[in-house]
Specification:
With 142 residues, the chain is of the alpha+beta class. It has a single domain, classed as HIT-like (HIT family, subunit A), CATH 3.30.428.10. The protein has a 5-stranded antiparallel sheet, covered by helices on one side. The protein is globular and about 50 Å long. The structure holds guanosine-5'-monophosphate and zinc ion.
Length: 142
């Protein structure tokens, strides 16, 4: 059961539980992820409760995403990271564990710095015709 009432990130927004905030405005909060996958690992969230990217109203998305570059640059400047992974997990299969939309900013320091994302590529299995068909099918839903 996941709802606004028992949402840990809504509680962080309202400062009902402690967090280490690095940014806050009327719509958005950024705070250090408790797990610190790498040094400086930060979450950017809307104050508005939305389960994940699927349920994010466009104006809320605009507010959150427009803050990401300045938070990313601030983390980079402080930590001296040599790169950054920016990601958002939606639903359990994708690794979502907190059901209030959030963007992870994971600064990178080297190949063995604690973060790993592994994916396979399948270019050989997709012809131009297949890609064209897939794109036109997705387009119908936009
Ligand atoms: P997800 O797995 O949903 O993509 O990411 C949820 C993140 O929230 C995890 O990286 C986890 O460490 C972080 N997290 C969970 N509970 C808390 C908390 O109470 N405080 C903070 N600062 N981070 C939390
Ligand atoms: Zn929430």
């Amino acid at each position: 059961m996941h709802s606004e009432d028992n949402c840990i990130f809504c509680k962080i927004v309202k400062s009902e539980i402690p967090s280490h905030k690095v940014y806050e405005d009327d719509e958005v909060v950024a705070f250090l992820d408790i797990s610190q996958v790498t040094n400086g690992h930060t979450l950017v969230i809307p104050k508005h409760h939305a389960r994940n990217i699927y349920e994010l109203p466009e104006h809320v998305a605009a507010d959150v995403f427009q803050t990401v570059p300045k938070i990313a640059n601030a983390i980079q400047r402080e930590t001296g990271a040599i790169g950054m992974n920016v990601l958002s997990n939606a639903e359990e299969i994708a690794g979502q564990t907190v059901y209030h939309f959030h963007i992870h900013l994971i600064p990178r320091f080297g190949h063995d710095d604690g973060f790993g994302a592994k994916w396979e590529t399948h270019m050989d299995e997709y012809s131009q015709e297949t890609l064209k068909q897939l794109a036109s099918q997705i387009k119908q839903h936009v």
